[in-house]
Amino acid sequence: VPVFPWHSLVPFLAPTQSD
Amino acid sequence: SAPSLPPYFTKGSIIQLADGELKRVEDLKTEDFIQSAEISNELKIDSSTVERIDSSHTPNFAIIQFAVGEHRSQVSVEVLVEYPFFVFGQGWSSCCPERTSQLLELPCTKLSVGDVCISLTLKNLR
């Protein structure tokens, strides 16, 4: 049975640095 | 061929938390994500508030605009309407929960403007 890491379920929403 | 979601959103998928504990995807709670991020050296949980949901030109896709983190940075993502997001204190939610339930058997509520989703960023971004 495959086991998936918890963070694969969460979208990675990295804001672009504006400053 | 039709695009599809990754396999780990299917009901019954086994998910490993940062402390090694195994849970089914449908049993995950907000605390599981928060505690796993606390253990992580690299990842940080951010609150991402849904600001807009628009239909995409691509069939079965939606464009969701989030305000991410304390600076409320604007981030747009184009996802399948059945793509589930985890809403704080509520659980899995998607633009089309009927389709999510049908395709993945994952219990799901309707994602709405104002919902606060769990997202990740890097801890040392600056």
C-alpha Rg of chain B (nearest Å): 15 Å
Distance between the termini of chain B: 40 Å
Sheet having the most strands of chain A: none
**SSE string of chain B, helix = H, strand = E?**
EEHEEEEEHEE
Helix content of chain A: under 10%
Average pLDDT figure of chain B: 94
Poorly predicted runs of chain B are none
Low-pLDDT parts of chain A are: none
Q: In percent, how much strand structure appears in the residues of chain B?
A: 35-45%
Distance between the termini of chain A: 46 Å
Biggest sheet of chain B: strands side by side, in what order? 5-4-3-9
Mean of residue pLDDT of chain A? 84
Please provide a written account of the structure:
The complex is a heterodimer of chains A (19) and B (126). With 19 residues, chain A is mainly beta. Chain A has one strand at 3-5. Chain A is rod-shaped and about 35 Å long. Chain B has 126 residues and is mainly beta. Chain B has helices spanning 30-39, 97-104, and strands at residues 14-16, 22-24, 43-55, 61-68, 73-80, 85-87, 91-94, 109-110, 116-122. In chain B, strands 5-4-3-9 form a four-stranded antiparallel sheet. Chain B is globular. The termini of chain B are far apart. Chain A binds chain B through residues 1-18, and chain B through 6-9, 13-18, 22, 25, 28, 32-33, 36, 40, 43, 45-46, 48, 66, 68-69, 71, 73-75, 77, 85-86, 117-122, 125-126. β1 of chain A pairs parallel with β1 of chain B.
Output the keywords:
heterodimer, A: 19 residues, mainly beta, rod-shaped, B: 126 residues, 4-stranded antiparallel beta sheet, 3-stranded mixed beta sheet, 2 helices, 9 strands, 14% helix, globular
Spell out the blueprint of helices and strands:
The complex is a heterodimer of chains A (19) and B (126).
Chain A: E1 3-5
Chain B: E1 14-16, E2 22-24, H1 30-39, E3 43-55, E4 61-68, E5 73-80, E6 85-87, E7 91-94, H2 97-104, E8 109-110, E9 116-122
Parallel strand pairs in B: 7-8
Antiparallel strand pairs in B: 1-2, 3-4, 3-9, 4-5, 6-7
